[in-house]
Amino acid sequence: MTxxxxxxxxxxxxxxxxxxxKYNGYQRVLADTFKYIVLCFAALIVILPIxxxxxxxxxxxxxxxxxxxxxxxxxxxxxxxxxxxxxxNMGLAFRNTVIMIxxxxxxxxxxxxxxxxxxxxxxxxxxxxxxxxxxxxxxIPGTTAQVARFQIVNALHLYNTMACPVVLAMGxxxxxxxxxxxxxxxxxxxxxxxxxxxxxxxxxxxxxxIMPLLKPATVTVLxxxxxxxxxxxxxxxxxxxxxxxxVVSTILYKFKGPYGSQWxxxxxGIVLAIxxxxxxFLILQKQIYNGLVSxxxxx
Length: 299
Prior knowledge:
Elements: H1 3-57, H2 61-66, H3 79-87, H4 90-121, H5 127-139, H6 146-155, H7 163-169, H8 174-184, H9 190-197, H10 202-213, H11 215-231, H12 234-239, H13 248-251, E1 256-257, E2 260-261, H14 263-293
Helix pairs in contact: 1-14, 3-14, 4-7, 4-8, 4-11, 8-11, 9-10, 11-14
């Protein structure tokens, strides 16, 4: 091969490499463009309903029914918020909701951590079966067990009491179990063994070693459980119809009547209900993300 031919071959290779890089660059630009288009579309799907509710909360009843969903309010009046707070008794609803969430979350965390600790640390027959049982129970539609659940609640005299949703929510759920099991993988068993050698019992190991180390996962479970109960409408509506036991999710149903609904007041109530969860999420979003990924990677 002559010098000229070798130089031509080198130039052809460089040209091919440049074409390959340029082609990959175009692919990357197209992929990024498509990604951002999808993300913008998903953001619009989430934001647009919130905008409709926010604009509707500041409109009068006549204005709400005569203007478009995305039309700005004419006066930006806060009368709807005052009416909802006073006539809807939102203060009582927030108090009942906080009591219900605190009691249910505390009980759910205790049962979830205990069940996860036993499934992760102890060896016994049927261990794998119990783990899979939690998954199988999730596959059963919740509505199929409502009749039996209602009969049990009524037999235990929990109907129309604050204890009913608390007891129902205290049951260990698959989300909490697997978050704790995932996090327990990152806690070495040698800590348990050292404490047991020093004379500590299983309950002492659980309360003084396991529970403090499970704090990031507990924060995540607490937030997920609280938001789930905060948004739950079916359970309070079915088991707590008494007005004095109304919660945030059911109090807005008061403004829906057989001859029409006061949608401007419902929108104002929804905005008031969104504010606490939005503040909590903005404050604790770092803990939520850290708790979901903690323990996912083994060192």
